[in-house]
Amino acid sequence: MTHVYDLVKRIRALSDAGADMYAVHLPSYRHGEFTVNQDMMTNQLELLGEHVIPKVARG
Q: Residue ranges per domain, the chain?
């Protein structure tokens, strides 16, 4: 299992090398308050997006 911080570092390194698309395979399992696999995957994508997607000025 990869920590989101390590995944962010890897994606940024690939971006610096010129990559513009990334495929992320999320594990399917249950954890804590997440009762449906889809809930867990959605949460992981939200965390990834929070750390990777650049902040866009709203205006």
A: 4-52
